[in-house]
Every structure is written in structure tokens, then in C-alpha cells.
Amino acid sequence: MSRLFLFSVLLLFQTTLSAQSVEEAQVIATLSKLFDGMRAGDSAAVSSVFHPEARLQSAFISRDGTPVLAAQEISKFVEAVGTPHDEVWDEKIWTYDIRIDGNLATAWTDYTFYRGEEMSHCGVNAFQLFRDSEGWKIIQITDTRRRDGCITSAVDEKVAINQFLDNWHQAAANADEDTFFGSMTMDGVYLGTDASEYWRRDEMRKWAQPYFDKDTAWAFKPKSRHIYMSADGQIAWFDELLDTWMGDCRGSGVLVKTKDGWKLKHYNLAVTVPNDLMDQYLELLKAKPSKE
Q1: In the chain, fewer beta carbons within 10 Å around the N or the C end?
Q2: What percent of the chain has pLDDT over 90?
Q3: Among 31, 68, 73, 83, residue whose Cα is nearest residue 53
Q4: pLDDT band at 243, cuts 50/70/90?
Q5: Where are the beta strands (DSSP E) in 73-117?
Q6: Is the pLDDT assigned to residue 91 strictly greater than 50?
Q7: What is the pLDDT of residue 289?
Q8: Alpha helical stretches, state H, 174-277
Q9: Phi, psi of 132 (to 5 degrees)
Q10: DSSP secondary structure code for residue 85 in this structure
Q11: Torsion angles phi and psi, residue 112, rounded to 5
């Protein structure tokens, strides 16, 4: 593969990611305008984010246990927002899961609704948006409503991911097989330091069984770490410097957010070689006996 072709592929990939990030930010801006308008009691701002054909529905369980799908006219909702009330209508949004194809977008958001300081209910909003000549407009909102299991404070996901990764490494140090492999997705991949080490989670679990049968499998201690997040907060990637029996190693990986929390989908462990020792390292590779 030529360097020019590789550069072109990387440039196209970066451009695509940039375009997606811009579109996601535009969708989030439309939704934020809705919630800012609700907090301000600004019916004009709220009305401006809806398409003329928009619908508003709620799915919930009634007090007698009956599933209910209730509809409300957008005009009635806008009127209610603009009607003076003593408490601020504050719909706190905790997460965004956005999908876009052409002029159609969906957004799934966890929310908790407050009237002033008092929590009213929580659930999820399922948005559909259409992009017309004026930008993204909401064409459908279907929400769920409940009073149990509500999120009441924002989670610092980078702090949570740091702790998750520290726990994952500690699980290997403690030979805690269930925690170590349970922290990976079913299709998770682990790349070891040897070029032949491409492990699917369950393959690695079988290979590593003798190590986890001991008091410790291996002990990698993080020295530094950088974490990056996707715009919707559902994917994270990281790199870290580790203190290991092999010296300093570099780890990097990809995590996905699931209903059970963060899970490791891909991990790559690499031995670092100081630049001033590279010539000696290459000589060692040349002296390596052939496997043939």
C-alpha cells in the first residue's frame, strides 16, 4: 500500500468523522434549544424547534398496571411551557445516543424532569428529527415516564472509565478471572505483545486459565492514561503507560457503554522500545532463530 493511498484513506476517514461530529452537534443544539426554552418558559423558542407535522407521545404504565400510549398536541405543550408557573421546568439530559442518515436523525436521551427543586419523574426521550432548509427540526418525541431508578446527578464518565480500567488491571493482579473477562464484551479482542497474539475474549480466557489459577495472573500498574469520548458519550478510547515485568508497556483500547456499564471491546498491549536502543533491538530480531 503506497503512502499516498494510505494518507488519502486516513484523510477521508478523518473528514467523515469530522462531518459526523458536526451533524451530531447540530442535532444536540436543536434539542438543547428545546430544553433551554422549557427552563426559560420561552414558548417561541420551544415552538421553533418543531416541524409543523411533529407529534408528541408518552408511553407509561398506569396506576392499575395498564400500558398506556398517550398523545399530546404540540400546540398544547408549547402553550403549557409559556404559561407562567412558579417553578422552573428543568428537564436534565444525562446522555445522548444519536444516529444520522441523510436528513433523518434519531436521538435517545436519558432524562430526569424537575419542577423547581422537586423531582417529578424520569425516563428516556426517543426523538426523530428531519433536516429541512432551516436545519434540524423535531418531528416526533416519544418518552417514557417513571419515578424509580432515576438519575439525580451527572456521572463524570472519564472518572468512571479510569476506575473501570484500574479495576480491570487489578483483577489480573488478583487472579480474579470473572471480573477480568466479565469486563470485556463477548466479542472483545485482546492483542498481546507477540505478533501472533490475537485473542477473542473466550479464546484468551482458555489460554490464560493456568495464570488465573495462581495467586496472580499478571500485575500491570498504570502510570498515566489519556481518555477520549465520542460526541454521544457511548464510545470511549484511551491510551495508557503501564509498569510491567517487561518494563514500560503501552496499552490502548476501545470501550463501549452498555446497559451494564462500560465494557472493553478492544485492547492492544505493546512493548515500548527507547529510540536510542532501537538499533540493538533490531539486531536482536535479526538474531532470532527461525521457527521453520
Answers
A1: C
A2: 79
A3: 73
A4: very high
A5: 89-93, 97-101, 104-115
A6: yes
A7: 67
A8: 177-182, 201-212
A9: -105, -165
A10: -
A11: -135, 130
Other Cβ atoms less than 10 A from the Cβ of 208: the count is 19
Residue type, 112: T
Q: How many CA atoms, within 13 angstroms, populate the side-chain half-sphere of residue 41? A: 9
249: its cell numbers: 508497556
| Domain locations along the chain | 3-144, 157-287
- Is 192 buried (19+), middle (13-18) or exposed (0-12) by CB count in 10 A? middle
Task: Write out the E strands in 116-234.
Answer: 118-132, 135-144, 184-191, 198-200, 221-229
- What is the C-alpha separation between 183 and 61, in angstroms, rounded? 34
Cell numbers of 118, please? 422537586
CATH level 3 topology of 3-144: Nuclear Transport Factor 2; Chain: A, (3.10.450)
Pairing between strand 50-61 and 135-144? parallel
With bands split at pLDDT 50, 70 and 90, how would you rate the model's confidence at 290?
Answer: low
Pairing status of strand 198-200 against strand 184-191: antiparallel
* Same topology between domain 3-144 and domain 157-287: yes
Is the CB of residue 40 less than 8 Å from the CB of residue 81? no
Cell numbers linked to 253: 483500547
- Residue reference for cell 473528514: 15
Domain 157-287 has CATH 3.10.450.50: yes
Q: Which of 126, 146, 168, 192 is nearest to 262 (CA)?
A: 168
- C-alpha cell recorded at residue 235: 464510545
User: Cell 427552563 maps to which residue?
Assistant: 39
Whose cell is 422537586? That residue is 118
Residues ≥6 apart with Cβ < 8 Å to 159? none
Mean pLDDT calculated for residue range 97-106 = 94
Predicted TM-score (pTM) of the model is 0.62
Of 37, 28, 147, which is closest to residue 96 (Cα–Cα)?
A: 28
Q: What is the distance of C-alpha 167 from the center of its chain?
A: 19
